[in-house]
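Hey, resending since the last one bounced:
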Amino acid sequence: MSIEIRHSRKEDIPEIKDIYAQSSCYAGTLQVPYPSIDKWEKFLGNIPDNFYSIVAVLDGMIVGQIGMEVFSNPRRKHVSNIGMAVSEEHQKSGIGSKLLEAMLNLSINWLAVRRIELEVYTDNEQAIGLYKKYGFEVEGTARNYAFRNGEYADVYLMAKVI
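The structure tokens again:
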């Protein structure tokens, strides 16, 4: 299984949108069901200079995406926030690790980021395990952080400090 990791392109937008349209992917992020292609084209079609989007490609298909915002506030330029999703049929196959490794390399070795933050639902044990494997630590819990599937859900605030 050969996975290509690269920056996303405009022509990738429909496949990225399709990943986030999968129930486990929108439930694990702040996305909502039935995403609009217009919303995704507006977001990824004109990416600001402080945002990076990397995809995992397997057999010509996009199977995962990770995005990262590097904060532009002068006092927080050393900090970024990440979020990602892997297609349901490719979860637990190492794609999340490859995406995370690529984004960590970019942020630490090329963008001078020294603190990487993320939010993860407290019941997403698979993602929590992945982030801990790469040195992220739980720094706190945000209660009732987001409305998901008819109820409010908590998230862990996690960070990796280099």
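The chain has a mean pLDDT of 95.

Sorry for the duplicate.
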